[in-house]
Amino acid sequence: MGQLRVEKVQEFIKQEISKIILTELKDPRVGFVTVTHVEVSGDLHTAKVYLSLMGNDEQKVATWQGLQSAIGYLRSEIGKRIRLRITPELSLHIDDSLDYSTRIQELLTKLKQEEGSR
Fold first, then answer.
1. What's this model's pTM, rounded to 2 decimal places?
2. CA 31, CA 16: separation in Å to the nearest integer?
3. What fold is seen in the domain 3-116?
4. Cβ-Cβ contacts under 8 Å for 25 (sequence gap 6 or more)
5. Which of 60, 66, 68, 75 could be disulfide-bonded to 30 (CB atoms 3.0-4.6 Å)?
């Protein structure tokens, strides 16, 4: 399988899952979600979908539960929209790099404020 093909499939899945979550999922538990990236295996059998969840801890848990219960729907919709012999098995993963970078930024801001008050 060519690397270019894998990259195209990754980008397609990322765009389609974003659209499905935004416009088609009717689960009230699902809040604001961003699909940050998708990793598809070289044989196109599996796809890891990385998501950034927004909101407080309670909202994030509810969103995560809603997304987990919709994984079959997400896969079937991808299967209808993609032209492959097989539809990759989807697995959802939380991408907390945004939370991490926000925390680092807060710490840096706090450090600057402390230095400025000396």
1. 0.80
2. 17
3. GMP Synthetase; Chain A, domain 3 (3.30.300)
4. 66, 70, 73
5. 66
Instruction: Indicate the length of the chain as a whole number.
Output: 118
Q: What is the pLDDT of residues 58-111, one digit of tens each?
A: 999 999 999 999 999 999 999 999 988 899 999 999 997 766 777 788 888 888
Q: Do 42 and 1 meet the contact criterion of CB atoms below 8 Å apart? A: yes
Q: Is 2 helix (H, G, I), strand (E, B) or coil?
A: coil
Contacts of 86 (CB under 8 A, 6+ apart): 44, 45
CA dist 34 and 50 (Å) reads 9
Question: Where do the domains of the chain lie?
Answer: 3-116
